[in-house]
């Protein structure tokens, strides 16, 4: 195969990139208006908070993504962030470089039960700490868990619940 020829694999978004766990079409099919994802964000200092991601105004090209932090009483804590994203942009978030990423299959215990995942361990270079992303194969879209090295430790975000709302 010609190295410079464009890939026909919809999971491979460019030269030097690993295939993504899901295509834009798979993410679109799994993300209708009202899809809500509840996340637990754990900070290195031991504090944590919940965040909500909700899809609204979905169409063939993308959706409006609403995101907010949850207050103790369940209301919105701070500002509601709202922006348009394309399904392709969401897929691009998981386009990791071949040279510095390892991939393996792994079962991850999540709050809603075990999930078969594709685990991507990504480094900037051989000496840098890894960012790790677990994509639940039955849940096309964002990682079911990810851990990012940050000053002071590791920031962990875990999907607690995924639901469709009318």
Indicate the multimeric state: single chain
Spatial strand sequence of the major β-sheet: 4-3-2-1-9-8-7-6-5
Class by SSE composition: mainly beta
Roughly what percent helix? under 10%
Give an overview in words.
The protein has a 9-stranded antiparallel β-sheet with strand order 4-3-2-1-9-8-7-6-5. It is built from 2 helices and 9 strands, in the order αββββαβββββ. The protein has 166 residues and is mainly beta. The mean pLDDT is 92. Helices cover 7% and strands 48% of the residues. It has helices spanning 24-29, 87-92; strands at residues 36-42, 48-56, 62-70, 76-86, 101-110, 113-122, 131-136, 145-150, 153-163.
Summarize the structure.
The chain has 166 residues and is mainly beta. 7% of the residues lie in helices and 48% in strands.
Indicate the topology:
Blueprint: H1 24-29, E1 36-42, E2 48-56, E3 62-70, E4 76-86, H2 87-92, E5 101-110, E6 113-122, E7 131-136, E8 145-150, E9 153-163
Antiparallel strand pairs: 1-2, 1-9, 2-3, 3-4, 5-6, 6-7, 7-8, 8-9
Features:
mainly beta, globular, single chain, 9 strands, 2 helices, nine-stranded antiparallel sheet, 48% strand, 166 residues
């Amino acid at each position: 195969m010609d190295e410079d020829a464009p890939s026909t694999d919809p999971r491979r978004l460019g030269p030097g990139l690993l295939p993504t766990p899901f295509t834009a079409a798979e993410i679109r099919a799994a993300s209708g208006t009202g899809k809500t994802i509840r996340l637990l964000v754990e900070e290195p200092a031991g504090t944590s908070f919940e965040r909500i991601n909700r899809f609204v105004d979905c169409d063939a090209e993308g959706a409006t993504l609403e995101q907010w932090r949850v207050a103790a009483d369940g209301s919105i804590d701070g500002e509601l962030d709202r922006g348009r994203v394309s399904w392709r942009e969401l897929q691009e978030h998981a386009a990791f470089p071949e040279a510095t990423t390892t991939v393996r299959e792994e079962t991850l215990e999540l709050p809603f039960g075990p999930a078969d995942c594709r685990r991507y361990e990504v480094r900037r270079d051989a000496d840098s700490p890894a960012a790790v992303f677990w994509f639940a194969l039955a849940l096309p879209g964002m990682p079911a868990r990810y851990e990012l090295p940050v000053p002071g430790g590791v920031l962990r975000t875990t999907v607690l619940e995924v639901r469709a709302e009318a």
